Amino acid sequence: MADEVKLFGMWASPYSIRVELALKLKGIPYEYMEEDLSNKSSLLLKYNPVHKKIPVLVHNEKPIAESLVILEYIDETWRNNPVLPQDPYDRAMARFWAKFIDEKLLVTTRKVSFTAGKEQEQAIEEITEQLKQLENELQGKEFFSGHSIGYLDIVANVLVSWFGNVQEALGVDMFTEEKFPILFDWIGKVVKIDIVNECRIPKEKHLDYIRSRLEALKSASK
Amino acid sequence: MADEVKLFGMWASPYSIRVELALKLKGIPYEYMEEDLSNKSSLLLKYNPVHKKIPVLVHNEKPIAESLVILEYIDETWRNNPVLPQDPYDRAMARFWAKFIDEKLLVTTRKVSFTAGKEQEQAIEEITEQLKQLENELQGKEFFSGHSIGYLDIVANVLVSWFGNVQEALGVDMFTEEKFPILFDWIGKVVKIDIVNECRIPKEKHLDYIRSRLEALKSASK
After folding, report:
1. Residue B222: its pLDDT value, please?
2. Which positions are tagged coiled coil (chains A, B) (predicted)?
């Protein structure tokens, strides 16, 4: 039986882009199902009844949710072009920093997005510190994963276009080449990789989307 | 060279108990270093400069932080008595529910702890729903991991004594045998396992600890 691989995703989600990158890196053909998050499909709700969120990978009718869990599944199911490093300690470090990106960096990004004034300034200070810690991890390396992109580069891909677009839509100045030369050097290298380029978020469409979402959330909280 | 394994933990932390359970399950000798979280050791700060938190496993001078990352590391480094299932889909499900426990169940527990009145009632409703979802996952199985305890049982071990003690200290009634017969049946089985019993948190000491911590946090936020 040929593998049937479907991905339920959303064009502007860094989480579903991660899964696309891993599938493309391994050359796995898949059917992409775009979800309208304001009107989720019954299939998405069936496949991810707990979180009701994208991305969901469905492999031969078996659903898997949570992007980091999906990445591990892909790597364990299709063994070519390993995504995670081979050494247990290197694997632990990759997982540690992936968790850091999701649980610190992206959580603080939300803080920056939904605060203003002094509170926003503090969140920007916090995220600057977190970006420095992440940059530190990259120091002296070509990619996070060594000489080619892997698991942590895929997770950190959120910095490539998504993060800059959010910054621009918010009109803040927290992630610049001047402050983070090593991260920007890495971005310069990853955008030259075909599969990364194929997954780039269209900028103007993304800016419009972020602005309208922020507006909607702000007026809902009034 | 013999393996040198050190664990920086704290007696009441369900996260450091997870690591102890995995080490004991595999029969790995380790040195346990109790941390005073109000006065963290310079070694802890050196080994986990990013989060400054326990648990940290130090294996031959190499530190690993974050309990779920440590569990994967232990399983990949010492191959006897596998902790994670072997099948990639079963592994994905175990990881999915472990994330659920940490990012939903334990986050809502904090909400229950730091709210009162209507807000606390809502948090209790939320946690009841989450416990039902977790219970659903256990239905028809002897343990979360099948016929013997494994990764998800180790992570869910937070329900064995820690969770009940928190509930008792808070004086709320959210986790009872009547509401969750399958989870309580599982607890009845796991407490009979020697290594689980060795890692049980002393109840009275724990109740005193939770009460004094809640008091301190409440007066700090006034």
Report:
1. 65
2. 117-144
Is the model more confident about B221 or about B148? B148
Distance CA B28, CA B210 (A): 31
User: Could you give the domains of chain A?
Assistant: 5-77 (3.40.30.10), 88-220 (1.20.1050.10)
A17 CB contacts (<8 Å, ≥6 apart)?
A9, A157, A158, A162, A199, A201
Q: Which residues are bridge partners to A146 per DSSP?
A: A143
Rounded to an integer, the average pLDDT of A174-187 is 97
Confidence of residue A1 (pLDDT cuts 50, 70, 90): low
Q: What mean pLDDT do residues A184-209 have? A: 96
Residue range B48-84, pLDDT digits in tens: 999 999 999 999 999 999 999 999 999 999 999 999 9
Q: What is the per-residue pLDDT for B102?
A: 98
Q: What is the pLDDT of residue A198?
A: 93
Shortest CA gap A202–chain B (Å)? 31
Which candidate in A69, A90, A106 is best for mutational testing of the B interface (most B CBs within 10 A)? A69
Q: Hey, are the CB atoms on A133 and B92 less than 8 Å from each other? A: no
Q: Which residues of B touch A95 (CB under 8 A)?
A: 66, 68-69, 72
Q: What angle do CA B60, B64, B70 make, to 5 degrees?
A: 110
Q: Is there a contact between B91 and A73 if contact means CB atoms under 8 Å apart?
A: yes
Strand-by-strand arrangement of the B62-65 sheet:
B31-34, B5-9, B56-59, B62-65
